[in-house]
Amino acid sequence: MREILYIRLPSGVPPDALIAAPVEFAVAPADRSGLSSVQHGTLEAALQQAAGRRLIVFVPGADVRLTSVTVPARQASKVLQAAPYQLEEQLAEDIDTLHFALGPRQADGSHPVAVVADELMRAWTAPFRERGLRLEALVPDTLALPWDADQGRWSALCEAEQVVVRNAPFSGFHCAPDDLTSYLLMGDPDKSRALRLLTLSNAGLDYSRIDWPLELLPGYHWPLEVFAQHLQLSQAIDLLQGEYSQRQDLDRYWKPWRAAAILAVVAIALSATIYGIETWRLGQQLSAQDQANLARFQALFPNETRIVDLQVQLDQQMRALKGSGQDAGVFPLLEVMTQAVGANQGLKLQNLQFRDGALFVAMKASDLQVVERLREWFASQRAATLEVQSADAGTEGVQVRVKLTPV
Asked: GO terms for CC (predicted)?
């Protein structure tokens, strides 16, 4: 068995400058029983050590969107063909400019999907292809963090400039260290999941500032150590699929199977009608859910009239808030509201809207006593001022609308 050369590629590097960009790289024995000292140098220097070794490359998870699809087909190839069209309405970019890769089929019949710009895939693979090097795997670093399926704990790696978080088997996110607590609260307002924090000895971060149940896992010096040690390819998505598959000598194997391929095309054509009906039915269900999501987004951001991709546009709105200096108001108010709901049983959030420096919240209360307890809770602390704008009692509870403003 051959040794493994691990390489971590950086983010935000122009394609023609990648070969000279700084990377982390290290060699491990074939059984992955240990890792040599992590080295730092250009990608060119790392590739000089590639001869005779298996190549596993980690790419920036911030550049890869993780989602999922459910397609009425069991063959991975058919699912991969249908995935772009299933996701087309969720993506701001033209699907012809994107690359799609599948993860393993899940118990509920869905498939995890990784979506990345085709331009990035070409840039990431070009240095290896031009030197005749065969990649074994190209994996988003988000999916190289540990995941505990039994306990469901989230995992995070804190670097000096960013935090990489894995919050599900095939899901995660990147954020700035100062924003970590706010991102965690948005994903888990009840703080029900502990966070395993893999710490770097040279990061120089104050972890006591993270207001979250933490389990610190020290003993690492460089991020590549974390990714190489915890990577489980069966629990990740290899981006080397479709045209980037590393299959060799395809033409040599094609001729004997040409007749079988023709028969397969006929079979696919015969099943296309049934498959099309099932796809249409699923599309109708997805459309209904999309409409509900669109309504919630428009309630939060009424000035955003043209909606293409909720996730992308929500990120843009958050960045706009940050650029305008308003994020110092929205995140503290969101945190106070989350604490208030947790401290007062019988409340359920229905809608949030931030405008003119205030947070407007629509929610449902089990009875009017809950509303009074909410008033008393805000009166006892000074993080924000509560104004109950309406409280309409009905047979199914009390519809409440409040306004929160900074003190």
From this structure: Gram-negative-bacterium-type cell wall; plasma membrane; type II protein secretion system complex
- Residues 57 and 122 reside in one and the same domain: yes
CATH number for the domain spanning 355: value is 3.30.1360.100
Same domain, 267 and 311: yes
Q: Are residues 241 and 258 in the same domain?
A: no
Neighbours of 221 (CB within 10 A): 13
CA dihedral 170, 197, 161, 54 (to 10 degrees): -60
pLDDT at 37 over 90: no
User: Crossing angle of helices 258-300/310-324, nearest 10°?
Assistant: 40
* pLDDT tens-place string over residues 239-288: 999 999 876 434 444 555 566 666 766 677 777 768 777 777 777 776 77
Q: Which amino acid is at 2?
A: R
Locate 332 and state its tokens. Answer: 């503290």
233 and 261, same domain (yes or no): no
| E strand or H helix that includes residue 275 | helix 258-300
* Token reading at 136: 């074994």
pLDDT at 324 over 70: no
Please tell me whether residues 42 and 150 are part of one structural domain: yes
Pairwise CA distance, residues 161 & 181, whole Å: 15
Instruction: Specify the DSSP class assigned to residue 143.
Output: G
Highest mean pLDDT pick, 272-281, 310-319, 320-329: 272-281
- Shared domain check, 267 and 225: no
Query: Confidence class of residue 25 from pLDDT cuts 50, 70 and 90?
Result: very high
CA distances from 273 to 241, 261, 263, 268 (A): 27, 20, 17, 9
Angle at alpha carbon of residue 74, lines to 284 and 78, rounded to 5°: 75
Say how many domains are in the chain. Answer: 3
Whether residue 296 has pLDDT greater than 60? no
Whole-model pTM: value is: 0.60
How far, in Å, are 190, 197, 200, 207 from residue 212 at the CA level? 10, 11, 19, 10
User: Residue 237 sits in which domain range?
Assistant: 4-246
